[in-house]
Amino acid sequence: MRTTTMLGLTTALTLAASAFAAGADTVKIAFIDPLSGPFAGTGTNGLHQYEFAAEELVNKQGGVLDGDMFEIVAFDNKISPKESLIQLQVAIDQGIRYIAQGNSSGVANALTEAINKHNRRNPDDRVLFLNYSAVDPALTNDKCNFWHFRFDANADIKMDALTDSIVTNDEIEKVYIIGQDYSFGKAVAAAAVRYLGEKAPEIEIVGNELHPIGKVKDFTPYSRKIVASEADAVITGNWGADMVGLGKSVLENGFTGPIYTYYAAADGITAAFGDAGVGSLRLVAEGQLNPPPNDRASEYIQAFKAKYPDGNLSQARITNVIEMLAKAINEAGTADDVVPVAYALAGMEHESLWGGNLMMREEDHQLIQNVHIMEHTSDVVHDHDNSGFGVKVVKTVEMAAADSPTSCKMRRP
Length: 413
Fold this sequence. Notes:
Helix content is 38%, strand content 19%. The chain contains 12 helices and 16 strands. The strands form 3 sheets. It has a 7-stranded mixed β-sheet, with helices on both faces. The protein has a 6-stranded parallel β-sheet with strand order 1-3-2-4-5-6, sandwiched between helices. Strands 12-13-14 form a 3-stranded antiparallel β-sheet, with no helix packed on it. InterPro entries: BCAA_transport, Leu-bd, Peripla_BP_I. Keywords: Amino-acid transport, Signal, Transport. This is Branched-chain amino acid ABC transporter substrate-binding protein.
């Protein structure tokens, strides 16, 4: 399996010509995420997880259909919606039918609109969008479309689970909400306000602000406001460098309460916090590494670490994307026509490598799965960042939000 970072049209055409000359039977998946800039670490680690899942879970098992192999083709979008659309067109021009993206809901919103428009105009050249991590609820509500599938729990589903944990802590009377200033950060803040208001109106929200994404070098002014507010807990959807910067600054400025997060693990975050994160960091996520749910999961983690010693299996849902796509292609009997593949994915049930059942909800293409509350600790079997620390499941919400309403009104071909 070849993996190449796509930097422009010339490189794309060269690769396309090489693949044609080799006569390779491959199912190509375009990975469009940041491979440079402040979030390069997150994107690169995600790329490695896709590479490994494709090789271990599909190619080594004989591939799909009559032995077609999965190939991950990487495109650096520099976390820019505009650059993402350019790379999307390069991928389509290469004949790639499957687009995987996850970092930034702003990017995901741009991609899903572009893909929907492209598929309407080009019925013989359609593509599917495999969203593995962009969790703006709008993507499976008002902005839903037939070509988009989300494999992560959306921001509302996660906040529902997170606030269940918050309201059981009698020591929390004041909460400060802070996040990145784009669609996802706004969705997290709105969900926090709504669920806290419904479940514990006595909890006071003493701060609710957004900061520029990927541009803040010193979070001290924000941290001082959090400490001055006398908040008992912090809620943030920050990820990547922004999670490290905010979290470390908050702790260094004297905050001692719990920090409830979506993405405070791996990609350098776990190592950066180390012992300081114990008793402070809480995380809501899917996928269970600690304790390992089964021997197969443990073996998979060990094999990944053997190939990528500095990598982290921080996005367990990537294995779900690969396995469910392979199953859908086999059920459809084709990888070239994405319409029957999409129909096979919609409503699909699947047993996750990480334990528990998965169900791709047919009406909005939102994956329903177990969601876990985890804590940063050294009491783990599998650590992150080779740090001796990781995240351990302390509570599980089974098939979270399976009956939650959706405003999706999907048009199907």
